[in-house]
Amino acid sequence: MIPARLKIELSNARGVKGAIYEFDDTTKQARHLTDAIWFHIRVRNETRDTPVSGVHIFLLLIEAPDASGEWKPIFVGNAPLGWTHDKNPLPKTIGYQSAECDLCHVLKQPLEVRLNPINQGQMPDLFRGAFKFVFTLQARGVEAESNKYRVGVSRDGQWSDDQGVMTDHHLVIKPA
């Protein structure tokens, strides 16, 4: 049997544009709250015939530049991220099907970026204004773990309704 090999990568540097809605009990209608763009990390099994059970994608490290521009840790840990379109926090089995987790999303109102850890409050997960970070992530399962993957996220604190302008200028995310 071929040993399992997990790999993680940024799913789409342009992100996925969407909106956040709230259900109004009085009118029984969904009410648009704000626009948002979600960014995902994909885990796939390079040896699809050998499934990997108990997989989570963990945020291991957040680094930010200090006054001299040197990268310094602001968070070190093992924070599992939530799966995309799945409220179930349980780990997944990765075989033939890849899976994605929500790394972060940027909101138009209030203008902020939110990370998506399963357990809120175990790490910094809300950022406002301009920033520059490098996130280190890793998928871990029972039978295998992925490469450590670094992704840079920089933001100037602005919003554009044009998704291309937004992800080319205002919130840029790319492998680091």
Could you describe the 3D structure shown?
With 176 residues, this protein is mostly beta strands. It is built from one helix and twelve strands. The model has no long low-confidence stretch (mean pLDDT 95).
Strand content: over 45%
Number of domains: 1
* Coarse structural class: mainly beta
Poorly predicted regions are: none
> What characterizes the major β-sheet?
6 strands, antiparallel
Radius of gyration: 17 Å
**Given the C-alpha coordinates, what overall shape results?**
globular
SSE pattern, N- to C-terminal = EEEEEEEEEEEHE
Number of strands: 12
Write the layout of secondary structure elements.
Elements: E1 6-10, E2 16-24, E3 29-45, E4 52-65, E5 71-80, E6 92-94, E7 99-107, E8 112-115, E9 126-128, E10 131-140, E11 149-155, H1 163-170, E12 171-175
Antiparallel strand pairs: 1-3, 2-3, 3-7, 4-5, 4-6, 4-10, 7-8, 8-9, 10-11, 11-12
